[in-house]
Structures are given as C-alpha cells and as structure tokens.
Specification:
The structure is a homodimer of 207-residue chains. Chain A has 207 residues and is mainly α. In chain A, 68% of the residues lie in helices and 0% in strands. In chain A, helix 1 packs across helix 2, helix 5 packs antiparallel against helix 7 and helix 6 packs across helix 7. The longest helix of chain A has 28 residues.
C-alpha cells in the first residue's frame, strides 16, 4: 500500500501518516481480491484481509458489514471490466465475443473460483444474494442487453424478442457446466451455443 | 420408523428389537430428507438426523462418511424419480415435458431448496462434487440423453447433433435463473427455450 501524506496550507486539518480514505479502500479491495483468489471464499477471513492491507479490522467493518459484501466488491473491482461487451456489427459476432470473453476470464484468470464461491455463498446469505443480483447479475446483464437490442434495431432479429430468455440461453449452458462440473465449456461449445441462439433469435422462436 | 422383528426357526440368529439394516437406512434417509427440506443444507446436522430417525450417530456414519453424502442420498431418494423423462413421440413434446417437470419439482416441492444447497456445498467439498456429478448429474443426463437420441433415430434432427450442448441449452437457462435469482423460470420461458432448442437442433446448428 502506498501511503500519501499531504501537507496543506488551508484550514482543513490533515493528520500526518494517515492514508486517504480512497487509498485505504483500494488497499483493502486489492488484499481481499488476492486472498479470495489464493484461498477461495470459505477460507478467506476479514482478519487476514486487514493484515495484508495493513489496516485495522474496524477500517474494514466501517465500509463492509460482512465478508460476503467485501468479497463481492473485490470481485467486481477485478473482473467486471473483463466482461464488457464489444460492438462487432452482427449479433453472431457480438454474442461470440461476449461468451468467449466469459470463458477466457473463467478459465484463464482466478475469476472462475471467485465466481463459484460467491454464487455458492449467495444461496444461504440473503443480503449477499441481493447485492449479487443488483451489483453483478443486473449490471452485467444490462450491458449485454444492449447487444441484443442493437440486433433488433438493425432488423437482424424480430422486435419483441425476449431479451432475457436469449441472454439465459447464451450464458445458462456456461454457468451450468461451471457449477455442476459435468463438462468443461470449450471453444466448440461457444460456437454451437451461439449458432443455436442466433438461429432461434432470427426465427422468432423467442418472441 | 416401523420396527419389524422377525422370528425365525432356522439357524440364523435374530436379535429382537433391532430393525433390519434396510429399514434403518430408509428411516435415516427419510429423516435426512425431511430435515433438509425444513432447514436447508447449512443448518442440518447428523446429530439431528440421528435423533429424528431414532438411531445412534454411529449407525449413520457407518453408512455415510459425511453430511454431504447423506444429504445427496436423501435428495436422490426423494427427487430422482420426479425427473424421469417421458416419451411423447416428438422432440418438442419430450423436451417440454422434461423442462416442465423440472420447473414443477423446483417450484412446487422443497426440491429447489435442497438442489441449491447441494450445488452450493459441492463448490467447496470435492468428494461431494464428485458424487454429485456421478450420482445426480450423470444419472439424470443419461436418462434425458435418450430423448435426443430418439429424435435422431426418428430423423427429426441430424445425426451428429451435440447431445451435451442441446441438454445444456435446455437446462442451463433454468439452473441459471435458479442460482443467480435474477428472474423466476415461468411456463412462458419453458415454451421459448424449448422452441429455440428444437429449432436449433433441427437446423443442424448444434452438430
């Protein structure tokens, strides 16, 4: 953690040696993300995050009421930008890019482990489940919703297409394999899933 | 628990008042299933199962090495038969019936709660994850695989269709909504998902 001490000549009192709040926050999130990746959700504790971030536990509890909410913020700060959609000009190109980015993040980074840990915890922690839906699921879905709405605007698929069902057909198989573990989600699966979803969307079956 | 005491005239010694092994097993599974439904996976303990089944804890540990494996068997004994596929004569009819049965079991019985509890636990318990894949996921999938293989045999969809991808396109969206909780899985969603999967299968996009 880098501690920046400011000396100011104006009237606001500045305490020497105390890092600014946003720096403390960044250090805590960075330590939490690292521990989450190293140990997984179950084994990670607020005490260890405090030690690694070189802050007191109260500095963490002031900002995050529980281990689950801290883990969620650490997860979002690391991974949400990896999943941003791109605009390739066709529905097939956009869905392919989105699903490929998901597979690469889940397999090529520690995101997969953190993702399953948070989804598992959300099944028995109501507050975490609500934050998970609002801050991850809904945020990610509203970005990707645009992809399908652009295809409707271009006339590629019928207006009135059920955007939610199409998104669940795209991501559902990938999450299903990740959480049940029956098969890995390969590049070939990405291609087949996208082909079926695009064909279904164009035919108007999901209206 | 019904205790049946047999009196036999042959040479095998029979201890009065001790229920037969399969009755003990049934009583344990029934108690475990009831507790799993009432409390959910996290709050359920081997001690409580023993109390409710009127057996000692060693009788349970002799048969099931962990809470996870007992919960899995209790789950299978209650629900696996609810998910058996039917033969309607068309791919659309079969997939519709299968997905509708899943939705009804998840929403109309305590199965949904037990299902999410077991999937959540399997994310951090390697032995349970392996048993879950072998005894639930693979068993259920091999039953439903027949549905798609019959459609290939009837010439309804191309031979060489990727049965795994088609099954994940069918069940993935339902599990996705159940575990992420962003939307309920309605009858209308069943209809749209089945329509897209059938159209995709017929077009040969999943080959």
């Amino acid at each position: 953690m880098v501690v920046v001490v400011s000396f100011s000549s104006d009237s606001e009192p500045i305490k020497r040696g105390r890092p600014r709040s946003e720096e403390v926050e960044r250090a805590i999130l960075k330590a939490a993300a690292a521990l989450l990746e190293e140990r997984g959700f179950r084994a990670f504790t607020i005490g260890e995050v405090a030690l690694r971030a070189k802050v007191g536990k109260p500095s963490i509890y002031r900002r995050w009421p529980s281990k689950g909410t801290l883990a969620l913020d650490a997860f979002l700060s690391e991974y949400l930008q990896l999943l941003s959609p791109v605009n390739t000009g066709t529905l097939e190109g956009d869905l392919s890019a989105s699903l490929t980015a998901w597979v690469q993040a889940v397999e090529g980074t520690p995101m997969g482990r953190s993702l399953v840990g948070l989804i598992a915890e959300a099944q028995s922690d109501r507050d975490l489940a609500m934050s998970w839906r609002e801050r991850f699921v809904t945020t990610a879905r509203s970005q990707h919703r645009l992809t399908i709405e652009r295809a409707i605007a271009r006339g590629e698929i019928p207006s009135g297409s059920d955007v939610d069902v199409l998104m669940d057909l795209l991501y559902g198989p990938a999450y299903h394999r990740l959480l049940n573990g029956h098969l890995p989600f390969s590049e070939a699966s990405v291609h087949e899933v996208v082909a079926v979803v695009v064909a279904g969307a164009k035919s108007g079956d999901a209206v």
